[in-house]
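Appendix B. Raw example, untouched.
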Amino acid sequence: MIERQAETVILRPSDIQPSQDDLRVVGVFNPAVASFGDRLVMLARVAESPTEVRKGWTPLPRFAPTGRTQIDWVMNDDLEVVDARVVAMKSNGDLRLTSASHLQLFQTTNQDGLNWQFVTTILPESPWEEYGIEDARLTKIGNTFWITYVAVSRSGAATALMSSNDLVNFQRHGIIFPSENKDVVLFPELIGDDFVALHRPNPHSHFRPPQIWLARSPDMIHWGRHELVLDGLHDWEGDRVGSGTPPILCDQGWLTLYHGCTRPSKAGTVGSYSAGALLLDREYPDRVLGRSAQPVLQPIRHHERHGFVPNVVFPTAMLDLGDNLQIFYGAADACVASVQLSKQSVLDSLERNPHE
């Protein structure tokens, strides 16, 4: 691992006001962050669960067309626990989430990323967002901010798109990658004549290790020309891999962080999530120049090891500070945290492609 610098916890569940009186905040995490003028803006995921407890029953929240969160109560005997986040219906195997997420917008004029102030709430609106909206990534291309996020419904986890010119008003553009596909990050400039994204297919049939793919688009809506970028080859990424932070351009190429997860040690648990780094060619971003053999960040702090889902470091935003990188991440699916790493140390840690 790389030595950490200037690390802090930014937001905790106790800092967040629930969206309804009958809900409690169980996590604020996986933030999208970008610079906008003299301020930083953040879109954080806020996960909520019902406050009411009924012995022998499990509450399963979902967003209704009214804009409020409704609760479906299901007998425990009719459910199988997948992990802390997910249960399965014994009758048909359908999955439900134990919490429902929305996005909250924060801002700060402190360039160290401290003292965030609440701005507004973004709630699910469409049927494909019935079980929540999650894990936004924020990229500025030209004068437009583009936000990818996970839309969860009874049809699965898909990736949807929003845009904004002022980060106050948002236009929704619908689904751009259907279920099951998530962890979509956008490159901050056109490559050739194309918008470019990294994405994570999540197939039910596992022919190979988990993977990250690349896609291109002429208009940000229609995506194709998919290419494999990365296989989860190492033990720390053996269960799943996925894009983390929108790439930044450095002298060597496109630098981005991604997450890897170990296989769970027993049923009903989740493996350990860590962060790795990936260096891609500037002109041919499907070409890997270097990648992490070992994580650059692992869950070692208390707030990373203990939370709604223990042992999670999940990077979702990275700012280029010159010599350092400021990384924002979700810790244990409970908190928003930030840490600085030396950019050169990250680059030096990469296992270079032997063909380069």
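End of appendix B.
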